[in-house]
């Protein structure tokens, strides 16, 4: 059954006139008659009694209309809601990132832009010393950050881009000569920390509690410079470490540490259709 047949039937049922129904539907009167005849064939009964003077619904036509109107209203309402939602995925989506963009993220951006060509994505690098500030201030719509995130005012998505942590140390560091390190190796060595307002639970993860805090920095280049100078060590997810190679630092694999993972964050009171659509693209 064609939706146009339903529309034709309802228009004639409302107008009780084929000419006015045709005007309403912006088609010819012959096309309306064709739609009604086709629907009557599908139903197996006449829906209108027609004469040169008048058009009236048959008893079956009356009952058919009564049952059809609510269903048709729900259908058209769903279509309009979907159209409104699609129109909402336009404008600009401002995305922050820390350290670099993985292939997973660039692929998600490509999928999002292909599906929503009216929405422009703008990328901004975020200072690790303030991973949540640009979202909270409204400067950015969302930021890709490392887990864990325990901020009640922020929404987090399902973790993605899981990867092992690696230890980044100066070539002169005692752990640089190890083939692999575990939590017991890390416990006595200073960790490069992030300056305020980055929360300590966030930048210390997953360092052992016994590891002392070394210098506090604001950016990844500052952190790498402190590492190279022998001021402390840093745990990074393996893909981020690979994006920033240096000849004066050594990357050591780890064992018995949880995996790193990423999440999208946005303000709980500022959720939009664009954000949810981008989160869906990332989750694939």
TrEMBL record:
<feature type="domain" description="HTH lysR-type">
    <location>
        <begin position="1"/>
        <end position="58"/>
    </location>
</feature>
<keyword id="KW-0804">Transcription</keyword>
<dbReference type="GO" id="GO:0032993">
    <property type="term" value="C:protein-DNA complex"/>
</dbReference>
<protein>
    <submittedName>
        <fullName>LysR family transcriptional regulator</fullName>
    </submittedName>
</protein>
<dbReference type="Pfam" id="PF00126">
    <property type="entry name" value="HTH_1"/>
</dbReference>
<keyword id="KW-0805">Transcription regulation</keyword>
<comment type="similarity">
    <text>Belongs to the LysR transcriptional regulatory family.</text>
</comment>
<dbReference type="Pfam" id="PF03466">
    <property type="entry name" value="LysR_substrate"/>
</dbReference>
<dbReference type="InterPro" id="IPR036388">
    <property type="entry name" value="WH-like_DNA-bd_sf"/>
</dbReference>
<dbReference type="InterPro" id="IPR000847">
    <property type="entry name" value="LysR_HTH_N"/>
</dbReference>
<dbReference type="GO" id="GO:0003700">
    <property type="term" value="F:DNA-binding transcription factor activity"/>
</dbReference>
<dbReference type="InterPro" id="IPR036390">
    <property type="entry name" value="WH_DNA-bd_sf"/>
</dbReference>
<dbReference type="InterPro" id="IPR007110">
    <property type="entry name" value="Ig-like_dom"/>
</dbReference>
<dbReference type="GO" id="GO:0003677">
    <property type="term" value="F:DNA binding"/>
</dbReference>
<dbReference type="InterPro" id="IPR005119">
    <property type="entry name" value="LysR_subst-bd"/>
</dbReference>
<feature type="domain" description="Ig-like">
    <location>
        <begin position="215"/>
        <end position="284"/>
    </location>
</feature>
<keyword id="KW-0238">DNA-binding</keyword>
